[in-house]
Amino acid sequence: MDLAENRRLDEAFVVQNYGTRLPIAFVKGEGCYLWDSEGRRYLDFLAGIAVCTLGHSHPRLVAAIAEQAATLLHTSNYFHIGPQARTAELLVQASGLDRVLFCNSGAEANEALLKAARRWSAGRWGEGVRPTVITCLNSFHGRTLATLTATGNPKVKDGFAPLMPGFRHVPFNDLAAAEAAIDDTVCAFLVEPVQGEAGIIVADDAYLRGLRALCDERGILLLLDEVQSGVGRTGTLFAFEQYGIRPDGVSLAKGLAGGVPIGAAIFNQALSDALPAGTHGTTFGGNFLATRAAQTTLEVIADEQVLENVNDVAPYLRAELDKLVDRHELLEGVRGRGFMLAIALREEVANVLRDACAERGLVVNAVRPNALRLLPPLTIGRAQVDEAVAILDAAITSLA
Ligand SMILES: Cc1ncc(COP(=O)(O)O)c(C=O)c1O
Question: Is the model's pTM score more than 0.85?
């Protein structure tokens, strides 16, 4: 399908909830590159918003998905599902937590954390006594009614009242505010180790460690949203590993199955016990296709030293970006961890810069009006960094 036909059908038949799409229709991907319907090649520094962990068409992921599709796609959770059980084992071993609940998206994974927290709280203090979950301003947790209420951004909530009761928001990276917000209605604190949609804002070491200590002291749960920061993006499988803490529950989605829709909530035993038979479920959650893709993604990350690659190439990317900051007045600085980065701009021109990059064959995202977000596949090498930085350099120069 060419771009004009694609656009016509989209505008005629698809709900227009994504605003204006860029005038590009990708038709093929291989490694860190995408090709559009006109045959143009792009270097992908977005990875489908932190989804395509292994780049595009990774041979092992392609083979696993093809084999699974040709064998068995779906049976339901009435039956045992081999790759679901194996993926759960891998996630438990990697997280140090106890059990995994599979679903289909990041919002659903957070919804599962919230439901488990409420039921855990009901078991401990009585239903409705301590239902409140504290989250952060500028956070993003999803678009279901509970997760949009949890989200700390008014735009996401506009027009959806009445919102879910039992949420309270505090400033991010402010331990005193967190402490002051915990009263005897609160059962949990939910936070992103790196705020993604806010423009890549990293939690301070002292903040996350302090939150862990605070939650322990007050007997409440620490829940982490690693939907964007998880699956190796910051250089460890979970960002929380770098803080030397372990949460009571953590959500994953995006990059977990390398591009196949999936979500996972990983619980400690107490949270897991709060969801006994019949309390939660979803038809597709943990199906053969999605969990075979997740299992393979996790195996490739381990077998092909993908985390080592992030930890080798990310400092190089950061150093090259810092040189750009020195050269261009427009750039204020670089923030983030691993391959979860933002370039802060002194003016609100991120959209224009994103378009200038796309014209030159580089896909990036304008996460805020004044911040460009870089989320490359975890498999990029130094050559791709050089290519991206050269395009960024030219694009920034073209703006001036
Ligand atoms: C931190 C975080 N949580 C939750 C979500 C929601 O995930 P999904 O879009 O898969 O529902 C996102 C998506 O951007 C996210 O970045």
Answer: yes
